[in-house]
Design goal:
alpha/beta, Rossmann fold, 8-stranded mixed β-sheet, binds NADP nicotinamide-adenine-dinucleotide phosphate
Length: 289
């Protein structure tokens, strides 16, 4: 497939394909789940609140899968529950995330922007590797990153900000930068398993983004939101386009800014020692061999 993902997606069918969408209870994840189900995909949805997830689950014809990414044991249980529901995954949309106050450590003792945006989806994706390799053709992992990656800074020896001050938006940007490095890690390690990966910035979306953050929430709650953001439908469109496009060497390991391949990246995004080091340290932190 040589074409790039495009906005012209109306006629593409996902019949026979299974998609798992994380962060499906709200925003662009909910929109992506509903739209892909409309294209005929079997869609599984996960979020941290069963109550909030239920209307989306009902709309796509499934039961909610509940997991709080601030609890790695929830992620382990989620992976087991997904494996009970399906034998294979064609598209994994790692979309759950947001900005969080760094002082509120997760149940596992990690800085929350690091765990919720990177470590939890890293663990989930690794645990779902057998289901991704079982996809009848190839599988695609789509990681929702952000332009905020430009302001991130990965320090391998201090992923949890124990020796430096964690500033919320920098910690968020670092998590989103990790999404790009993780994408490259998947490409380098799993291409022989027929698994592709892409990362994508959806644009400045007027979703519930920032609800967990006093500072970012302030910006997204002011009247400015109307002028500074795009709709949830428009924000979900690049994710949907990637899922409909499917696995393809042309998009493998690439970071999209909406529909543009080669979005602007932090200079750390191509640092091979960081790509390898982040993978190895993340694996050690979540207890993967
Ligand atoms: N909005 C933007 O401007 C923007 C820009 C660039 C990138 N992004 C990225 O796009 C993705 C989706 O964001 P959005 O704009 O759709 O925001 P959103 O409306 O806030 O949706 C975020 C989703 O992630 C889930 N989530 C948050 N914390 C979680 C946790 N601890 N465990 C499990 N799920 C959790 C939320 O669950 P609840 O419903 O329970 O809160 C919700 O389903 C995020 O990764 C975000 O970083 C957004």
């Amino acid at each position: 497939m040589s074409e790039q993902p495009s906005e012209q997606t109306e006629e593409k069918s996902m019949a026979g394909r299974t998609v798992l969408v994380t962060g499906a209870s709200d925003g662009i994840g909910a929109e992506t789940a509903r739209t892909l189900a409309g294209h005929g995909a079997t869609v599984l949805v996960t979020g941290r609140s069963a109550e909030k997830l239920r209307p989306v689950a009902e709309a796509v014809g499934t039961e909610p899968l509940v997991a709080d990414f601030a609890r790695l044991d929830d992620v382990r249980r989620l992976a087991a529950e997904v494996a009970e529901r399906t034998e294979s995954i064609d598209v994994l949309m790692n979309n759950a995330g947001g900005t969080f106050a760094p002082s509120k450590k997760t149940a596992d003792g990690h800085e929350p922007n690091f765990q919720i945006n990177h470590l939890a989806p890293f663990l989930l994706t690794n645990l779902l590797h057998p289901l991704l390799t079982a996809a009848p053709d190839s599988a695609l992992v789509v990681n929702t990153s952000s332009i905020a990656n430009l302001g991130g800074k990965i320090v391998l020896d201090d992923l949890d900000y124990e020796n430096r001050r964690a500033i919320e938006f920098v910690a968020y940007g670092t998590g989103k930068l990790m999404n790009i490095l993780f994408t490259r890690g998947i490409t380098q390690r799993w291409s022989d398993d027929n698994i592709c990966a892409s990362a994508v910035h959806p644009g400045p979306v007027g979703s519930s983004f920032g609800r967990d953050s006093w500072i970012v929430g302030l910006a997204y709650r002011t009247p400015l939101k109307r002028f500074a953001t795009i709709s949830v439908e428009d924000g979900a469109a690049p994710l949907i386009a990637l899922a409909l496009h499917g696995p393809d060497p042309e998009i493998n390991g690439r970071y999209f800014s909406r529909f543009s391949i080669d979005g602007r990246e932090n200079k750390q995004a191509h640092d091979q020692a960081l790509i390898d080091g982040l993978w190895e340290r993340s694996a050690a932190l979540v207890g993967l061999g």
